[in-house]
Design goal:
- The chain is of the alpha/beta class.
- The protein is about 45% helix and about 15% strand.
- The strands form two sheets. It has a seven-stranded mixed β-sheet with strand order 9-8-7-6-10-11-12. Strands 1-2-4-3-5 form a five-stranded mixed β-sheet.
- Strand 10, helix 10 and strand 11 form a beta-alpha-beta unit.
- Helix 1 runs parallel beside helix 3 and helix 6 runs parallel beside helix 16.
- The radius of gyration is 23 Å and the shape is globular.
- The mean pLDDT is about 95.
- Bound molecules: glutamic acid.
- The site of glutamic acid has 13 residues, from strand 3 and helix 13.
Length: about 475
């Protein structure tokens, strides 16, 4: 990165400083919150074919004000210490914003996961986990990894298995990592959680009539146009749920191989099928191929969702962005230098540390499930449904009318795990946005939602430090 660009961590620090000025908190406390508490850089050898490769990897614990620390593990060639530090810091603020009682952390392994076989990836993952165990950097009460860019439930299963092998008999071992396969101590709804959270968050943002009026839009999600950059786990589920449950029209998609545009809406399932068959999103029937994949970011649309990596909206392309709302599904997609240009245009930037917090929220539910050793809904599902059946029966008796079987089954349903997870996630995203918006609306000096989100997070973290007896 050249000298005139801020590094990713420096960008986070810049945004932090901007918000810190509005808090009136003591300097020492702000400094303690801002720094990364522990940075573990490691190199380890893994035999790939006939050769040994030295793998570079990291785990950063940004803040210990609450334990365990929490955050995903990224597999990408772009991984470096600055990036992992920035992502770990964002986790601290993210957890505070959605009231998930963890400190922030992040891990990274500098590899291209597509260049390895599953067997080789398993070797790398198990070795990385072993390094974490050796340094006491993993455990249900210490530091709990999760999926991030380039990893998924498969890697989390390997992590748990390695941990449990070393920690034989540790009763809460399953809580050492989240995002595990549902059959292996995972939780329903975790895979789609970040995307579902992005949808709930955007729907809440769009529900405020006055805010929408300012950017020339009607309240509500229905009929809004959306462009998604990155069709991975987060981008795909955001688009899918926004279309199905929000009535959004997906008009543009960008991926590694290029970008497409279709004015009257892209059929997402058909696009996924097309990509599976041809290996590319390009040449999708009825859609236009864009010249460069970055062009998708500049399409005219109501909501732009960058859902891949950091720094895709830069000082250079910011002036050409035409979206009215940007939902930062990825972490750090807007370079700090680009922010002012976008804000001056009146664009509503819904910050990463709020809008993509659905993943860690459901990770928290998974961790609670692991510690309780019981699936959600087991105790109350039948009890509730019996109670509702009695109620419906009483209504029928008193009115002399019969409720049809379909309606009856809806009315008497007890909540399954997935219902509880999604409703907990919805409550979390709605409540957190209201808190951030409240900070924003009440202050005449705070100019954007990111700063408001930071202020909200800093207030909560500082009161945690005070409760610990540090910085009384
Ligand atoms: N990697 C996700 C994030 O950036 C999820 C972290 C977690 O579930 O701990 O928020």
């Amino acid at each position: 990165m050249s000298n005139n660009h801020l590094s990713f961590f420096a960008s986070v620090e810049r945004n932090f400083d901007k918000a810190a000025a509005h808090t009136g908190l003591p300097k020492g406390l702000l400094e303690q919150i801002k720094v990364c508490n522990a940075v573990y850089q490691m190199r380890f050898p893994v035999k790939i074919g006939n050769e040994y490769q030295v793998i570079e990897a990291y785990r950063v614990q940004h803040s210990h004000h609450r334990l365990p620390t929490k955050g995903g593990i990224r597999y990408a060639t772009s991984v470096n210490q600055d990036e992992v530090m920035a992502l770990a810091a964002l986790m601290t603020y993210k957890c505070a914003i959605v009231d998930v009682p963890f400190g922030g952390a992040k891990g990274g392994v500098k590899i291209n996961p597509r260049a390895y076989t599953p067997f080789q990836l398993e070797k790398i993952t198990r070795r990385y986990t072993t390094e974490l165990i050796r340094k006491n950097f993993i455990g249900p009460g210490i530091d709990v990894p999760a999926p991030d860019y380039g990893t998924g439930s498969r890697e989390m299963a390997w992590i748990l298995d390695t941990y449990a092998t070393f920690k034989h008999g540790e009763i809460d071992a399953a809580g050492c990592v989240t995002g595990k396969p549902v059959q292996q101590n995972g939780i329903q709804g975790r895979t789609a959680a970040t995307g579902r959270g992005v949808f709930y968050g955007l729907r809440e943002v769009c529900s405020f009539k006055d805010d929408m009026k300012k950017i020339g839009l009607e309240a509500g999600m229905e009929g809004k146009t959306m462009v998604v950059q990155g069709l991975g786990n987060v981008g795909y589920h955001t688009a899918d749920i926004s279309i199905r449950e929000g009535g959004v029209k997906l008009i543009g998609v960008a991926e590694y191989e290029g970008a497409i545009y279709k004015k009257d809406g892209i059929d997402l399932e058909a696009l996924v099928k097309h990509r599976k068959e041809t290996g590319s999103i390009l040449d999708f029937p009825g859609a236009k191929n864009l010249k460069n994949r970055e062009d998708a970011l500049e399409l005219e649309c109501d909501i732009l969702v960058p859902a891949a990596l950091e720094n895709v909206i830069t000082k250079e392309n910011a002036k050409r962005i035409k979206a009215k709302i940007i939902g930062e599904a990825a972490n750090g997609p807007i370079a700090a230098e680009a922010e002012d240009t976008l804000l001056k245009k009146g664009i509503i930037i819904v910050p990463d540390m709020y809008i993509n917090a659905g993943g860690v929220t459901v990770s928290y539910f998974e961790w609670l499930k692991n510690l309780s050793h019981m699936r959600f809904g087991r105790m109350e599902k039948r009890f509730n449904s019996n109670t509702y059946e009695n109620l419906v029966g009483t209504v029928e008796r008193l009115t002399g009318k019969v409720i049809g079987p379909k309606e009856k089954s809806i009315l008497t349903k007890g909540a399954d795990e997935i219902d509880l997870v999604n409703s907990g996630l919805e409550e979390t995203m709605v409540e957190a946005y209201r808190q951030i918006r409240d900070v924003f609306v009440r202050s005449r000096k705070i100019e954007d939602l990111r700063t408001a989100a930071f202020v909200s997070a800093l207030r909560k973290i500082s009161s945690d430090y005070q409760n610990l007896g540090i910085f009384p």
